[in-house]
UniProtKB/TrEMBL annotation:
Keywords annotated in UniProt: mRNA processing, mRNA splicing, Nucleus, Repeat, Spliceosome
GO cellular component: spliceosomal complex
Protein name: Phosphatase PP2A regulatory subunit A/Splicing factor 3B subunit 1-like HEAT repeat domain-containing protein
GO biological process: spliceosomal complex assembly
Bias-annotated ranges (Polar residues): 78-92
Domain of life: Eukaryota
Residue intervals of the Phosphatase PP2A regulatory subunit A/Splicing factor 3B subunit 1-like HEAT repeat domain: 857-927
Pfam families reported in the protein's UniProt record: PPP2R1A-like_HEAT
Subcellular location: Nucleus
Record region (Disordered): 77-110
Listed GO MF terms: mRNA binding
Recorded family membership: Belongs to the SF3B1 family.
Length: 1078
């Protein structure tokens, strides 16, 4: 419970009550603002549709409903305008006088005291009336008793008796359920009671519900048929076939939603494979209402959406009658915050379009084109854009042209143009070439709307042209030539939001003109003209206009020749209007636009001059402005680092000093400061030498700061400056040694994020030092450092683990001989747990470090430890151990590892043998071909045994080993070696009839590798026997192999086709030209 601000203060009771009321009002206002902040998303959650059977409306009924909605909106607007005109003639009432707190006179106090007593008496009277047996209605605080009604009503009214059969409804309405404006979360006590009641209602051991891990309150509403205890298995024979299907679908759907991973996959497969058997009615009546449930979390919604997509793929054209319902449920996901969910929704709508066709999609979406609700129209335009992209613009353009030409409603025209805009967004980002062939037609459709009578239509038309120009950049300027005149006229006539749209359109077209040399004159003219408008709008208070100006400015082909007085005309107004504290603190998006515009102006005019002009803001009192300045400096240096060659010493000092000051004065930690330092070091290189001392003093001061965020940021800066220190002091590593000592003393850090940064900084400093300096360190020496790092390997934080492993690996590479072999073995044992880490980068670092340790102390001891690790039950640990063995073999050559592996394979344990095969797979993957060739004969008995084993996994892994061996030996084999690979082919070929997808995939990979190694001539002899076998299951894999051979070896396969010179009693097929050889 939140504590009141008034507690602990001795105030007069009346003043305390007034302050309490103001505090409650403030809290209520804050709550209202936060609840209504994202109203657009709330509309998506509020989307509901009648999913009861038989409630699907026809096209005619839907159109009648839309016409009724439009008429209601027109009447509401008319009524509102009438009320406003009436209110304007009424004399305004005097406003209530503001309350005074400190100057209340004794007379006023007594008067207010009597008023308070009267209010208390009135409230008591009202409460007594409400507590009587007869319920008295209260209107505006007035109880309508018989006495009051006699005074209000004329004398002709009489009281009549209540009818004897009348029954009063004393139930109170649920205020929360009736209100659509806000949501009040239930109290903790109610939630606990509901969960207890839910636990009583839901069955723990319901028949067929094995594997369901949890239940929710909403599950009672959707899965009542399978969760109630009365629905036992013996009662199912009384149900109809349709009811049984529905119950089975609900059971599987609940397992998909709440089941364990194994149960979920099995249920997903059953629903997908039996989709046609269950039928679309049973499936969609269960799935679609569930997707509208607002309590679904992200994972559950993702699973249901994935299931919907798979079912639609199976049902194909059968989903036609359910198109409207599917679109109603799926379309709100197109504006969801989750990017993956938006992609899945887009795929579902695309598949639905392919299944039902364009006519069905238009029939279901047509009523929403001119819907009175802007939310519905927005979703409709997005869906239509996906449909057009899926089925092709050729079919869709006639309908789109008809919609944009509609005279019935401006909303339809607006939605039609928005479809084109969404199509441009959908095909933007490098995919705009697909609409280039239709660009001229699309512009012709939009162009008349630039002079539409409705302001909204004109604005969206200009914005759509801008979007199309951005999508097809840098091509297609010819298509926009006809619309330039209308856009230019609109630029002259409009102000505010409309002007912003037309500015964006012309700015995007000018950027296309710049790319075409034939439009150079037009580009220069329009750039000059539009610059005048932009300069006028620099001082606009409208945020939309500011964003438009900042978006257009980098696109324009500005230059010193085009605008000679650029300092006075552009740079000065730009800095005056956009580089200020108010704008820097407005929004992150606006700040990013300012940075982009600054970079654009700097690259087109004078970058060094602009740097000098903006670096002064790095010492401003406002932190937002300092951060904006550092971001711009970082972007400018990154975009044109070569320009800094002309930097004078004064500006160089000012730059470094400004960034360092902003770094010291920050209160909110940001990576931008570190990025700015990195850009400066990369650009200035040796010129950073004079500034290194001041930066290091700042870093050392902050490393000992009380705040963990400050310490972490300081150590992250050491990672950046360590290479620069080495660059500026090539022959002297004293400074790096001092940093190593400071970091070594900080290894007792308790915060894991900070500790990870400290170890990373230590790794960077040691890596930058010369090998001799590193080995000669005495405070701390490597012998002191490594035992200190080893216990930290047990830290479970991922950043700490990765940094520690990399540091140990670097020490093993550069100074391994200075450490005792026992210490390395102890470290190796500590690192075994790293091989089963959940993060791939940690496993990669651990495997690499094992190779470095093996190179240092020899592979024998490390290999024994890794081979013992192959005996564990956990598969991921065995695989990572196999990878480590492969890396050890690559580091220390295979002859040090292969004897131990082949000896270990003799142990009759499937896990060990499979681990050995995995190790061999990685071993031959890492080593080169010349080395592989030498071990062919030695490894053949082991491969032969694995390829003839009854275990599928053995044969699959052995096929992978053969694949790597064959790929390594391409072009390096003589006759004797080639016979070994032919032997492998003889052993692998019988496995092509395997049905397991994992096994057959590896088998085909191995066969393709052998085809490349031994040549298509020998390989083709194995194909002809199976191509014309009477059994289809035999022919199918052989034709698959032949198709792959034709794709990759079509020319070299021709001489090896079997000869059919002359069949008995048939035609002569001999072609002499094919017998000519070179």
């Amino acid at each position: 419970m939140s504590r009141s601000l008034l507690e602990g203060y001795a105030l007069h009771k009346r003043l305390r009550d007034e302050l309490q009321q103001e505090e409650e009002l403030l809290e209520a206002s804050t709550l209202t603002n936060s609840l209504q902040h994202n109203d657009y998303k709330k509309r998506g959650n509020a989307t509901r549709v009648a999913f009861e059977k038989g409630t699907t409306m026809s096209y005619k009924q839907v159109m009648q409903e839309r016409n009724l909605e439009r008429e209601e909106m027109r009447l509401a607007k008319h009524t509102q305008s009438t009320d406003n005109s009436i209110d304007s003639n009424v004399v305004p009432q005097p406003t209530r006088r503001r309350k005074r707190r400190w100057d209340v006179t004794p007379e006023e106090y007594e008067q207010n005291k009597h008023k308070d007593q009267r209010v208390i008496l009135e409230s008591k009277l009202l409460q007594s009336l409400l507590n009587t047996k007869d319920k008295v209605p209260v209107i505006n605080g007035i109880p309508l008793t018989d006495e009051i009604l006699d005074k209000i009503l004329p004398p002709q009214y009489t009281k009549i008796a209540i009818p004897t059969e009348y029954l009063t409804n004393d139930s109170h309405p649920d205020v929360i359920a009736l209100s659509n404006d806000y949501y009040i979360p239930p109290s903790i006590e109610n939630a606990l009671m509901e969960s207890k009641n839910l636990a009583k209602d839901l069955p723990v051991d319901a028949p067929g519900m094995a594997g369901v891990q949890f239940y929710k309150e909403a599950d009672k509403k959707h899965f009542a048929a399978v969760l109630t205890s009365q629905n036992n298995v013996e009662d199912d024979h009384h149900l109809t076939d349709d009811a049984k299907k529905e119950k089975r679908v609900l059971s599987l759907l609940l397992k998909v939603k709440n089941g364990s991973q194994v149960v979920r996959k099995r249920s997903l497969r059953q629903l997908t494979d039996n989709a046609r058997k269950f039928g679309p009615e049973a499936l969609f009546n269960a799935i679609l209402p569930l997707m509208l449930e607002p309590d679904l979390d992200d994972q559950e919604r993702h699973l249901i959406v994935k299931l919907t997509g798979r079912i639609m793929f199976q049902l194909d054209a059968l989903v036609g009658p359910y198109t409207r319902k599917i679109l109603t449920v799926i379309s709100p996901l197109l504006i969801d915050e989750n990017f993956n969910l938006r992609l899945e929704a887009r795929d579902i709508i695309a598949n639905l379009s392919k299944a039902v066709g364009l006519a069905t999609m238009i029939a279901n979406l047509r009523p929403d084109l001119d819907n009175v609700d802007e939310y519905v129209r927005n979703l409709t335009s997005r869906v239509f854009a996906i449909v057009a992209n899926t089925l092709g613009l050729v079919q869709f353009l006639p309908f789109l042209r008809a919609v944009v030409k509609s005279r019935k409603s401006w909303m339809a025209r607006h939605t039609g143009i928005k479809i084109i805009q969404q199509l441009g967004i959908l095909l933007g980002g490098g995919n705009g070439n697909s609409i280039l062939p239709y660009l001229k037609k699309l512009i012709d459709v939009i162009q008349p709307c630039l002079q539409d009578e409705q302001f909204q239509v004109r604005t969206i038309a200009a914005l759509t042209i801008s979007q199309l120009a951005d999508s097809v950049y840098p091509y297609g300027v010819d298509a926009f030539e006809g619309s330039l005149e209308d856009l230019w006229l609109g630029l002259k006539k409009h102000r505010g939001k409309g002007l912003a749209g037309f500015l964006r359109a012309i700015g995007s077209i000018i950027s296309l003109m710049e790319r075409d040399p034939s439009y150079e004159e037009y580009s220069n003219y329009y750039t000059k003209e539009i610059t005048r408008t932009l300069l006028r709008e620099f001082s606009s208070p409208d945020e939309d206009m500011k964003k438009t100006v900042l978006l257009i400015l980098p696109k324009l082909p500005l230059s010193k020749q085009l605008i000679p007085a650029y300092q006075k005309d552009i740079i000065d107004p730009f800095l005056k209007n956009f580089w200020n504290r108010r704008l820097a603190g407005d929004s992150q998006k606006l700040s990013k636009l300012v940075v982009d515009a600054t970079v654009g102006l700097g690259t087109k005019f004078d970058l060094l001059d602009l740097l000098e002009r903006i670096i002064v803001y790095s010492k401003d009192e406002n932190e937002s402005l300092r951060l904006l300045c550092v971001s711009a400096v970082n972007a400018l240096i990154t975009s044109s680092s070569d320009t800094l060659i002309g930097l004078d010493s004064h500006l160089e000092y000012t730059l470094v000093d400004g960034v360092l000051y902003a770094f010291q004065e920050q209160t909110v930690r940001s990576k931008t400061y570190l990025q700015a330092f990195k850009s400066l070091f990369l650009a200035l290189k040796e010129r950073m030498g004079p500034h290194i001392d001041s930066i290091i003093s700042t870093v050392l001061y902050r490393v000992k700061n009380k705040s963990p965020e400050v310490r972490q940021q300081a150590t992250d800066l050491i990672v950046i400056i360590a290479p620069a220190i080495k660059l500026c002091n090539r022959d002297d590593d004293t400074l790096l040694m001092k940093l190593v000592l400071v970091l070594y003393e900080s290894l007792g850090e308790v915060y894991p994020e900070v500790l990870g940064s400290i170890i990373s900084a230590l790794h960077t400093c040691l890596e930058c030092m010369d090998k001799s300096s590193m080995n000669n360190m005495d405070n701390p020496s490597i012998n002191q450092l490594l035992p200190t790092i080893t216990p930290i390997l047990k830290n479970r934080q991922e950043k700490v683990q990765e940094a520690c492993i990399k540091l140990v690996g670097m020490v093993a590479q550069r100074s391994g001989e200075t450490i005792n072999a026992r210490e390395w073995m102890r470290i190796s044992f500590e690192m075994l747990d790293m091989l089963k880490s959940s993060k791939k980068r940690i496993r990669i670092a651990a495997n690499s470090t094992f190779g470095s340790i093996a190179r240092t102390i020899g592979p024998q001891d490390v290999l024994v430890m890794l081979l013992n690790n192959l005996r564990v039950q956990e598969r991921q640990l065995r695989v990572c151990t196999a990878v480590a063995i492969g890396i050890v073999a690559e580091t220390c050559l295979p002859y040090t590892v292969l004897p131990a592996l082949m000896n270990e394979y003799r142990i009759p344990d499937k896990n060990i043998q499979n681990g050995i095969l995995k190790s061999l797979s990685f071993l031959f993957e890492y080593i080169e071909g010349e080395t592989t060739k030498d071990y062919l004969f030695a490894i053949s008995p082991l491969i032969e045994d694995a390829l003839t084993d009854r275990d599928q996994v053995h044969r699959q892994t052995a096929a992978t080993v053969v694949k790597h061996i064959a790929m390594n030996c391409v072009g390096l084999l003589y006759d004797d070696y080639a016979e070994v690979l032919v032997h492998y082919l003889n052993l692998i070929l019988p496995n092509i009839f395997e049905t397991s997808p994992h096994v057959i995939f590896r088998i085909l990979e191995a066969i393709e590798s052998l085809r490349i190694s031994i040549g298509i001539g020998v390989f083709s002899n194995y194909l002809w026997s199976g191509l014309f076998h009477p059994a289809r299951k035999v022919r199918s894999p052989y034709w698959k192999m032949l198709n792959q051979a034709i794709i990759y070896n079509s020319d070299s396969l021709v001489p090896y086709y079997p000869r059919f010179d002359k069949l008995e009693g048939g035609k002569d097929y001999n072609i002499p030209e094919l017998d000519i050889f070179i």
